[in-house]
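I am writing to request your help with a piece of structural work I have in hand. Here, with my thanks, is the record as I have it:
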Amino acid sequence: MLIYLIYGPTCSGKTDLGVQIARETGWPVIALDRVQCCPQVATGSGRPLEAELQSTQRIYLDSRPLAEGVIETEAAHLQLISEVEDRKSSPGLILEGGSISLLNCMANSSYWNAGFRWQVSRLRLTTPDVFLSRARRRVAEMFAIRDERPSLLEELADLWNQNAVRPILEDIAGYRCAIRFAKEHNVAISELLHLDPLRQQALIAAIADEYLEYARWQERDFPDWREDDRSSGGFTLAACGEVNLVNQRDV
């Protein structure tokens, strides 16, 4: 089996690349994201809409209410292995995401050295100006009201009524920033839905800044796997080969 691994920081285009490769190959994408396993925070965690998937298959490692907490790393890794084992007869799979803990768990597991062929594409953090421009557009889209699902602020306002989930929300990028913004401006969480345009733009900018800090953390703590130089030019089977999934900083 060939595994195409796509990883990189938030707002780097991982999902778009995964969809592109899935359309070219017909392979499913397994999301390496623990927060996306909670559908109640689909918008804020960056789960793509069905239309954005362009009829490709995307597999999540769990589906659980936020009150149960974000899936633990080891449990997510075991489920990932199970998903791969169930598809061992397939020609290939796409693994895509940016969970630092899950990716490092993979890097330290001997399972991934058991005869798979690999293509690795690591998307890098851009300059702050480029990143923030993209991040602000993304947050503005998350704030938009859609028929398919609630906005990030609607998700937050609805979930905030459950005291048990508040500490979980305060630990997720985007929601954490919005909660802090509400406290600093002395407004109720529900009032974030009705901010004037200037304050809304300030909140969008603040969340984008938080995403940049998170992306820098990801860049620092990701495992560093060898990439095929040809991978940056698009997906080709000829570019695939054996890859030893070991964190090079530990070698």
